[in-house]
Structures are given as C-alpha cells and as structure tokens.
Amino acid sequence: MKPVSEELVWTEKYRPKKLDDIVGHDAIVLRLKQFVRTKNMPHCLFVGPPGVGKTTAAMCLAREMLGEHFAEGYLELNASDERGIDVVREQVKEYARSIGFGGIPFKILVLDEADSMTPEAQHALRRTMELFSDRCRFILIGNYSSRIIEPIQSRCALFRFSRISKEDVVKRLEYIAKQEGVEYEREGLEMIYEESEGDLRMCINALQSLASLGKRVDKKNVSQVLGLAYAGDVSAMINMALSGKFEEARKSLQDILYTKAVAPEDILRQIYREVTRSGLPDHIKASVLEVLGDSEFRITEGADPEIQLNAFLAKAALLSKASGNEQ
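The structure assignment produced for this chain is given below.
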C-alpha cells in the first residue's frame, strides 16, 4: 500500500469537474446540459439528502456555463453560517447587483443549506432574486424543499436529488481505492455504503480514514474505523429492554455511554438501524420507533440525552409487557 496523498481531502480531489462525470442522476444532468447548450438558465433549487452531489452539480453547471470566467463569475456561500437578513441585504445583494465582466451573460450565486435561512432572510432574498435576475442567477441548495418559502420555490426550477445507488457508490470507491493504491475487499466497500446510508461524501471520508491508518478495507477494519464495534452492545441493550429487563438495559446503556464513550446521537442512530433490521413483529417495531422518534425530538430540543435514552428503554420495556399481556 503506497503512502496516502495528503495534499487534498479526497472528497475534493475526486469531486467531478464536469456534468458528464456525475453518476446516478442522469435525468438531472440532461436538464442541466440543456441550460449549458442554450447558455441560459433560471434560478434553481436543488434538494435532496446529504452527500448525493447537489453542490457538485451546481459547481459543474457553473463551470461549464461560465467557462474561463468561472473564478470571477461564481460565488458560493453557506447559508447556515450566514442565515440572517443582514447578510442577504449586504453580502448577497451587493454581489447580485454588481455588473459582470469578461463577457459572461450573468453571474451564478450558490447558497448552500438555504433551508437553514430564517423566513425573514428568505423573503429578503426573494426580492433580491427578482431585482437582479438579469445579471445574477441563484442556485439554492437544501435538504428539504418544505423549508423554503413558497415565493422562492415558485421562482426556481426544482431539481430533486435521490440517493445514489449502491452499485454507483461502490464503483466510485473502487476507482478511488485503485487510484490511491488502497487494498480493499468489495464487502468492505459495501459495508461503508450501508453504514453511511448512501452518503457518498461520508463514504469517501471513511475510505480515506482507513487508508491513512494503513488498513485494508475489509469488514473488520471498517467496523473498527466507523465505530461499529458497539453495534452488538446496542442490539443486546434493546433485546434486554424488550424482554422487560429494564435495569440490565440501563446498565448496558451506561457502559456504552461512559466506558465506550459513544455519543448519544450515535446510539440513537444505531438503535434505529438495529430495530429496522430486526425480526420484530411489525406492531412492536412501529411502537418502538415511535418512542425512539419522541426521544430524538426531545434531545434535539435540548433535553438531557441520558435521561431521554433511559426513558426510551423504560417505554420499550413497558411496550414488551403490554404486548405480553395482550397475548
């Protein structure tokens, strides 16, 4: 295994540079190519889960649209960092209103994570999009279109990005591994895909982590690097709770939290995976997931994670008892 290249994060080093390099979104690429052919485009709204190529598609479109003037005609902002109305009125408006140079038909402004912007900022942005559409096109990127106000949605061409298929992701990981001289087994790459839930960016980062440690990409090493060694502990904890053994499940939770130092958010995600993959009856599985959703919501709202996880285990134990009584 040759030394891992350190000059770039692999997600940037292997980011597609043109639309033809994008995989898994053929219909979207065809629409974007039409914009390039006509040298014209509307405002766009790219929505979909993380790590599926939304930002990459925006960059590829801008690069082909603007050509040699890409550097001066393209600006990307992260709206979650700059989500207030003042930023829209100042930074965004100033860029949008300035005249392009070098013969480009218009500039392109990308607002990543636009669904994190406040409603007030979005209303201000709507007006800016109207006033300066002759000199600047906007590409808004977010995970949820429902968090974008209707007036902005109606002014944009909507592109919905879905998860990239397992075959396409594994093929890309194989290509990167071969380029970097990383030893791998296909089962290891497939495990990276499964645990990353189809997030290609997360998959590539996991591959680079394994390579930087000099580890062969197999199921055992993937499990260690991704912190999945505790998955069996989480599964055992759930089984204890569903068997009515609340105190044993609680002690197992303490061990996972403090001895193995697993974050509460990671425990929640692993519980979700274990429950959905389990052979539990559908009515039990549905009830457990409903309780899990309540706990996750309360944690995101600021409740104490340990108390909420204990509450989840208690409710799971009660569900088991109620189910037994029904029988």
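Interim note for the steering committee: The radius of gyration is 24 Å. Residues 305-326 form the longest helix (22 residues).
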